[in-house]
Write a structure and sequence with these properties.
Radius of gyration: 19 Å
Helix content: 40-55%
Order of helices and strands: HHHHH
Oligomer: single chain
Largest sheet: none
Structural class: mainly alpha
Number of helices: 5
Strand content: under 5%
C-alpha cells in the first residue's frame, strides 16, 4: 500500500466490497503491485485531477497505474462494479436493489442533442 495515507485511499471495508468485483490478475508471473494500491492510485488521479505522470512516487509507476486504468476501462470492468456497489448500497438502506425510476436533467438532454461544438455554451464576458 502507498506509504502516505491519502484521503482518496480505500478503507478496509471499501476494499472488502470492491476486491471481489475486480478481475483476477492474469496468467504469468505474480503481479509486482497489489490491486488495492493500483486502485488507490487511480482514485488519487481521478479525484485530484493530476496528470498520470505527476502521480506521487509512493504509488506504483504512473505507467503501471495507467495501464491498469486503460485495461479495466477497455474491458468494461467499471460499469458492472458500479452496478454491484449500487445494489449493495440500496440493500444496506433496506431498498429494492434495482431502482424503479430515474431522473433525467432535461437541460442536459437538450444540450447534448445539439452535439459537437454547438453543444457548448459560450463563456460570458
Amino acid at each position: 500500500m502507498a506509504k502516505a495515507g491519502y484521503a482518496t485511499d480505500l478503507t478496509d471495508a471499501q476494499w472488502t466490497q470492491l476486491a471481489p468485483l475486480l478481475p483476477p490478475p492474469g496468467v504469468g508471473p505474480p503481479p509486482r503491485h497489489e490491486q488495492r494500491v493500483i486502485v488507490n492510485a487511480i482514485l488519487y488521479v481521478l479525484r485530484t485531477g493530476c496528470q498520470w505522470r505527476m502521480l506521487p512516487h509512493d504509488f506504483p509507476p504512473w505507467s503501471t497505474v495507467y495501464h491498469h486504468f486503460r485495461k479495466w476501462r477497455d474491458e468494461d470492468v467499471w460499469e458492472p462494479v458500479q452496478q454491484a456497489l449500487r445494489r449493495q448500497e440500496r440493500q444496506r438502506r433496506d431498498r429494492d436493489p434495482e431502482p424503479s425510476a430515474a431522473i433525467i436533467d432535461s437541460q442536459s438532454v437538450k444540450t447534448t442533442e445539439k452535439g459537437g461544438r454547438g453543444a457548448m455554451t459560450a463563456a460570458r464576458r
